[in-house]
Write the structure tokens for this entry.
Amino acid sequence: MKTVGIIVEYNPLHNGHVYHFEQSKLVSGTDTVVAVMSGSFLQRGEPAIVCKWARTEMALRMGADLVLELPVAYSTQPAEWFAYGAISALEATGVVDAFCFGSESGDLELLRSAARRLHEADNREAPDHADMTAGSLTGLAPSFQDAIRSRLKSGLSYPSAYAAAAGRLLAEESEEDWLAKPNNTLGLHYLLALERLHGTMRPYTIQRQKADYNQTDISDERIASATALRKLLSGEADTEAVRPFVPAYTRRILQREWEAGRAPVSWASFYAPLFARLAVTSPSEMAEFGEVTEGLEHRIARCLHEVQPSAGEPFEQLMQALKTKRYTRTKLQRMMTRILLNHRKIDLSPDLLRGGVPYLRVLGFTAAGQALLKAMRKTASVPVVTKAASFRHPFLDMDIRSATVHASAYRQPSKAELFRDYYEPPVRLADEV
Amino acid sequence: MKTVGIIVEYNPLHNGHVYHFEQSKLVSGTDTVVAVMSGSFLQRGEPAIVCKWARTEMALRMGADLVLELPVAYSTQPAEWFAYGAISALEATGVVDAFCFGSESGDLELLRSAARRLHEADNREAPDHADMTAGSLTGLAPSFQDAIRSRLKSGLSYPSAYAAAAGRLLAEESEEDWLAKPNNTLGLHYLLALERLHGTMRPYTIQRQKADYNQTDISDERIASATALRKLLSGEADTEAVRPFVPAYTRRILQREWEAGRAPVSWASFYAPLFARLAVTSPSEMAEFGEVTEGLEHRIARCLHEVQPSAGEPFEQLMQALKTKRYTRTKLQRMMTRILLNHRKIDLSPDLLRGGVPYLRVLGFTAAGQALLKAMRKTASVPVVTKAASFRHPFLDMDIRSATVHASAYRQPSKAELFRDYYEPPVRLADEV
């Protein structure tokens, strides 16, 4: 039995994800699939539209065999740490032979050679990460960081500055601006993490069509991005609108969550607690939170005064007020996530993150997944956690608390929903028929 | 012109308050009245039912000439610091000749002699407050604190332990348990503060009828406590229910606030931000907040798991879960206020509080009040603040932030309402006709 790893969010799981899932098994020639999935808060700095258990069930119904939760310490991070956490989780299982990711380029060797050269630059300049301090957000070579910083100073956003600096380092062997594409960037970081972790998994990539649109083998009538689907669902009383774009089980699970008052969850759900927190936090205390960099604490304090809740959705107004060319929406949302969840820089220091995931939290499994779990008793390099209540780690506390905050947005949450991590065993597909 | 000071909350202003107001002028033989009023959060650890500007207007319409805001650093405190802050504010004006408070006993000499003996004990044991550390919440003599502590250990609540220890110190010259009555305790602390501050105001007390009920000169049909009135108003779409118990202007102002979506504000309005904050705060961080004493941080974490928002009002459930014989509802609510408002012990240390109010924030005035303000340019011992935006002090920041949090509970607050402290000049009665 060969196993492939995939890194997912399924917010919500749609037909494009099914395509990627089938292709991942096909190109890697594997039978079983381990999915590392973000929990309650996601890479773009947003709460998940439905809880992690519902999304786990979607993944299992599609055919994933084991779903592991990417700790929120990594899941709501820029590409470098997100990728590092996810790859470290797959490696830590000891049972994953390969991993597969989507990219705009589809050219593994291009990405891999870029990752190797970035890693060599790291090693040349900081062989043991010896010069990395808590102030350094990345594990990148200092000269490369300098190159990014100088581009930031010229007003570029971080992703643009990164792409420009990396393009320069890599001597721009490609004519087109391939590094500026988000899934190429993420893929590059998966491969960079693999180098850094001396990983043994074999990487594969599948070429993504532009934002999953215009695929020739699947008609437009069946494919839409997760962002587009969340927009369709926003403010809706039921989930009818997404029917053409998602598998039947996604629709059924979403509808169940809607009817139970557990969805949809969005930033609009958290404005009251976020606003109260922002209002009572001094700029100097604000600067202690993750992602509050470069004096953004003062900008937040000023922009808070621009919000007019009587004139529309207040979180959206806050984002509009905060936005500049320099700060992407994603960066600002990640910052708000850290503030809402009380995640300080000191809780997320490079020293803490560099160890990789310190546990593997099991969200769900099939019969084949159960066999994998059994094998992992011998192979896993970190504890495998099936009961959150019986394991303690600061990162796990953060995961549990973030799920509680997520659930606090439900219509009238029960205590079992608010503290579901303590009550809920992993989702088992056999139980769900 | 002689001036009397009163210490008020007016939550809301009712017929019993009018009686106290008239009596205060009468017994002190004064013409003008300065009211020191709590702002957005009150002594019992509750948000005010309507904002401080609306309550200022009530006070001015009744006849108060100048309304000053008691900083939230003092307003949401046990009796000792609440009284100390309020008396320091009246003294700091330099224009108040007398102050008058209600008490169950009505016996000024009994209270005054008790206050003097407590103050002598302070002086004997800690003449310069030299041994007071940040851990000591009160300015009381160490031996008296020990006496309170030993009674706390036997399971008494703080007010009961205080009354028992003070009764002992004062050799129980009274047969009845007069110190256990809340307004006697508060009165004792006003007089103790006067001693400590070497105040020059002449004190007066007016005997309160039991909870303002059964007064002979005002029939029961017109008198109810503020607590009873808030209960009548809770969840009501209009303010009709309180009509018999309040002056016409109170009713009109309340109705205006109701119709504008700015009232009623209660703890139920803040459950979402409070819960989110409690959920993401570790016990050790929780212990840094004001009033989180004696391991209550662990009790909060446990009790949070008892809350079932689907089964009723969640703040009430949390209070029920937290409550023991030892902790009064008031103590627990003050603790929640400190957590909601992000007030840490270090922000409210005895060293900071002992200086008395560091500014006099003017909330409103009449023509006579304006004359007082003019006189205060020469007499006031601290800055007189009429524009919050043009003065900076950590306590004033706390006042402004607490008003922002209070306003965030409005139906759909405008930014002018959220940050009203920056926009709103003092209420002037002449403008309000």
Notes: Residues 129-137, 212-218 of chain B have pLDDT under 50 and may be disordered. Residues 3-104+209-264+356-428 of chain B form a domain with the Rossmann fold fold (CATH 3.40.50). The beta strands of chain B are 3-8, 32-38, 66-70, 98-103, 202-207, 360-365, 384-385, 427-428.
